[in-house]
Amino acid sequence: MRRARKWIEQELRSRIQRGVYPPGSRMPTHRTLQSELGASSATLQRAFDRLTEQGFVKAQGVLGTFVAASLPHVSCIALVLPEEVGRGPWNRFMAIGKRVAEEWNDGTFTFRSYHLAGHSQASEGYAQLSRDVADGGIAGLVFITVPFYLKGSELLTIEIPRVLLPGRPADCLTYRGSAITIAQGDTMERIMARFGLAGRRRLAAITGRNQGRVWLDRSLPFLRLHGISTRPEWWIGMPISTEAAESSRAVAQLLFSMPERYRPDALLITDDNLVPHVTAGILDAQPDGELDVTVVAHANFPGATRAVFPCLRYGPDMAAMMRAAVLEIRRLAGGERPRLVEVPQIVQEL
Questions:
Q1: 77 is in which domain, residue-wise?
Q2: Tens of pLDDT along 12-22?
């Protein structure tokens, strides 16, 4: 009886996972397997193609096909991206995360990226990820941004290590996985201290997510501590969108076009997608280049977004976040409970 390709694929994968064919060993010849499994040559080759795609085996020319030295079900972490990199409001965060993950090689884990175009469970990326997880070819899942878009998906209920990056304490329960959070610590106090040391006394902010008031409330104690004044209308929240990032240039130009005694002399930018547009807007307002303003801008390290002129940068270190995620995958695979892990922010000159 001729066996179906799926059955043959599952049988070979099971033998590899159970150690019947150990890592690094040579697989039996196609002729041997055809006879043993009742498979045609074409069906067997398609099964091997799938195992090669997943990373279980590797063809080495005339030497034959060998079992991978590092098997994906214990070494391959899926990096789940809710959108194609370069699109959407999280594009810089995702792009840096993808780059850091794909350069990752600690001798134990490697990453494979899956793009769920448009946050969609109907996307090819989602279908491919689901197949790879169902086939036991993934050691763990790391989600860039909270996967609210996967409501009802088996990816959130099956027994597999999951890490959210970044996440909150409640996410650990909701998504049954660990969450990496960006610790606030004394970051805001350090930023306001820098403004104070620079002699700045009038602070404005351009924020993402329409959270101008939130950032103002968070900053007020430190503003008072360092003798810095502000106005509610100077804390401008922009929606997260490509259009908002571009329109923030006009907002900055308007803010800094006022007479000197009425305009701010310090600016906080809390979303790195806004940084190049906002700093360009300041230059639009002050084209002579004599900028009497100190700017502190959010950044996702490494490779922070370039500004038109030098700024103090603050933000998360993606390499540290990814390192924490890898350690959590290892913990969870060992049977430990999900938890919240804090990663400190960087504050530095660029």
A1: 72-183+320-349
A2: 888 888 889 88
